[in-house]
Write a structure and sequence with these properties.
There is one protein chain. With about 425 residues, the chain is of the alpha+beta class. It folds into 2 domains: about 110 residues, 3-layer Sandwich (Rieske Iron-sulfur Protein), CATH 2.102.10.10; about 250 residues, Naphthalene 1,2-dioxygenase Alpha Subunit, Chain A, domain 1, CATH 3.90.380. Helix content is about 30%, strand content about 25%. Strands 13, 14, 15, 16, 17, 18, 19, 20, 22 and 23 form a 10-stranded antiparallel sheet that branches. β19 and β20 form a beta hairpin.
C-alpha cells in the first residue's frame, strides 16, 4: 500500500501568492499522489460516464472507468440509466469486456452468473449447491451511488453525498448550453472514438486543453503545413507566436475555458450549406446568438472531460505516469452530410489520434514527465495573467487567450479536494 500523504503536504503543493502561482512538481509524480487523487478527486466528485446517444435504447451499454475503477453504464428494459462496477459479485471477474453494445443480460465469462442491465442478479448456474440460507440479495452488481445528466452528458459519482450535478457544473453550465445550440434544435450523436495514450501524468492533458500560450510554439510545424492549404482552417492565428484575440476563464468549481473570440471552422463546406446552417441558427437565436454559438470555445469540466466544438475528449488516468485519451467525434442528428462530414474531418485531422496537433502535445507531455523525475526541480509556475485578470463577484476569472486563469482554477479545486479528507 502506498504511504498516505498528510494535509499539510498536499496543501503545500499549490502555492498562491499575489505575484505568483506555483505548483510543486511532486504533484505530477509518484504513486502516492496518484492514489490519493483517485480517492479524493475521482471518487468524490462527478465524473463523465458517456453521452446519452450511446445508450439510447433499452439494453444499450457502455463500459468505461471512474478513476481506475471499471464501470458499466446501461439502459434497463424499463428505460432507466444504471451504472455499476464492472466486476462479478461471485469472484470479481470482469463481467463485460466489450466497449459498447446491446444485451438482455450481462453473463460473467468465468462461472456464468448473469445480471439484468439494471445490475440485478438473475441467474446462478447449478444454484442448488449453495446453502439454503445463502443470501443473494447483496449479490447484485455494485451500483455507482449517484447518476445524473445534463445536456446529454451522463455523469456518475461514487460519493453518495456529492452536490447536485448542476451545482457542480456551476459556471460551465452556460458553455454547455451554448455548445448544445450548435445542433440548431437537433441533438448530438457520438461517433466511434479515437484513442491514444502517452507516458505522462493525466493532468498534463487537462492543463493543455485550455492553454492558449503554447500553440504558436508546439504546433508551429503544423501551422506551417496548414498555411500551404489556404482555407482548410479558418480564422487560425497561424502567423503569430501568441494569439492576441480571445479569452480564458476559470471558475471556482475547477472548470475552465479557452475561447478564440471567433469561429474556427474547418473549410470545405459548400457555401450554400454553411449559409443555410447559419440562417437556421439565426432564426433560432438571433444574429448575436448565432454568432455566440459559432464562436470557438473548448472547455474542461473538472477533472477530465473536455468539450470541443466538434468532439468530446475523455482523459483517463491509468497511473501517475500513464494516461489514455478517448476522443469522440460529435455528429448532429439530421444535419446536412457536408456539416457532419466536416465535423468528422476536423476530429480526424486536427485533434484525433493522427491529427496534426495531438502528436505534438503528446511529445511535450512525455518530455515533461521525464523532466520531472529530477526532484531538485521543485516548482512550476502558472502565473501568466495573475493580477491582470478580471475577477467577477461569483468568483469567475477572465483572462486573455494566453493567460493561465483556467489552469489556476483547476489547481485551486484540486487542492481543495485533496486536502478535504486527508
Amino acid at each position: 500500500m502506498n504511504a498516505r500523504l498528510d494535509h499539510s503536504t498536499l496543501t503545500s503543493m499549490v502555492d498562491e501568492q499575489p505575484h505568483e502561482f506555483r505548483v510543486a512538481t511532486a504533484a505530477y509524480r509518484g504513486p502516492e499522489v496518484f492514489a490519493q487523487e483517485m480517492e479524493q478527486v475521482f471518487y468524490k466528485t462527478w465524473i463523465y460516464l458517456c453521452h446519452e446517444s450511446e445508450i439510447a435504447n433499452p439494453g444499450d451499454f457502455r463500459s468505461t472507468q471512474i478513476g481506475t475503477r471499471p464501470v458499466i453504464v446501461a439502459k434497463s428494459r424499463e428505460g432507466n440509466v444504471h451504472a455499476f462496477l464492472n466486476a462479478c459479485t461471485h469472484r470479481g471477474a470482469t463481467i463485460c469486456r466489450e466497449e459498447k453494445g446491446n444485451t438482455r443480460a450481462f453473463v460473467c465469462p468465468y462461472h456464468g452468473w448473469s445480471f439484468r442491465t439494471s445490475g440485478e442478479l438473475i441467474g446462478i448456474p447449478d444454484e442448488a449447491r449453495y446453502h439454503e440460507n445463502f443470501d443473494k440479495s447483496d449479490k447484485n452488481l455494485k451500483p455507482v451511488p449517484r447518476i445524473a445528466s445534463y445536456g446529454g452528458l451522463v455523469f456518475g459519482s461514487f460519493n453518495p453525498d456529492v452536490e447536485d450535478l448542476e451545482i457542480f457544473l456551476g459556471g460551465a453550465k452556460q458553455h454547455i448550453d451554448i455548445w448544445l445550440r450548435r445542433t440548431a434544435g437537433s441533438s448530438y450523436k457520438v461517433a466511434t472514438s479515437h484513442k491514444y495514450g502517452y507516458e505522462g501524468n493525466w493532468k498534463f492533458q487537462s492543463e493543455n486543453v485550455y492553454d492558449g500560450y503554447h500553440p504558436g510554439f508546439v504546433h508551429r510545424s503544423a501551422f506551417n503545413t496548414v498555411r500551404k492549404f489556404e482555407g482548410s482552417f479558418e480564422n487560425r492565428a497561424l502567423d503569430v507566436a501568441v494569439r492576441q484575440q480571445g479569452y480564458t476563464r476559470g471558475y471556482p468549481e475547477g472548470h475552465g475555458t479557452l475561447e478564440a473570440g471567433a469561429p474556427l471552422e474547418s473549410g470545405g463546406i459548400d457555401p450554400a450549406v454553411r449559409q443555410a446552417y447559419t440562417d437556421k441558427l439565426t432564426a433560432l437565436y438571433g444574429a448575436d446568438g448565432a454568432a455566440e454559438v459559432l464562436t470557438n470555445r473548448q472547455f474542461l469540466i473538472f477533472p477530465n472531460l473536455v468539450i470541443f466544438d466538434f468532439n468530446i475528449r475523455v482523459i483517463q488516468p491509468i497511473a501517475h505516469d500513464c494516461t489514455e485519451v478517448y476522443s469522440y467525434p460529435l455528429l448532429i442528428e439530421g444535419a446536412h452530410d457536408d456539416i457532419n462530414s466536416n465535423r468528422m474531418l476536423d476530429a480526424q485531422t486536427r485533434v484525433g489520434t493522427a491529427g496534426i496537433l495531438s502528436a505534438d502535445d503528446i511529445d511535450v507531455f512525455a518530455g515533461g514527465q521525464n523532466a520531472l523525475k529530477t526532484e531538485v526541480f521543485e516548482w512550476i509556475t502558472l502565473s501568466r495573467g495573475l493580477g491582470k485578470e478580471e475577477v467577477k463577484p461569483d468568483g469567475e476569472r477572465v483572462g486573455v487567450y494566453s493567460d493561465e486563469a483556467p489552469q489556476r482554477a483547476f489547481w485551486r479545486k484540486w487542492c481543495a479536494l485533496m486536502a478535504a479528507a486527508s
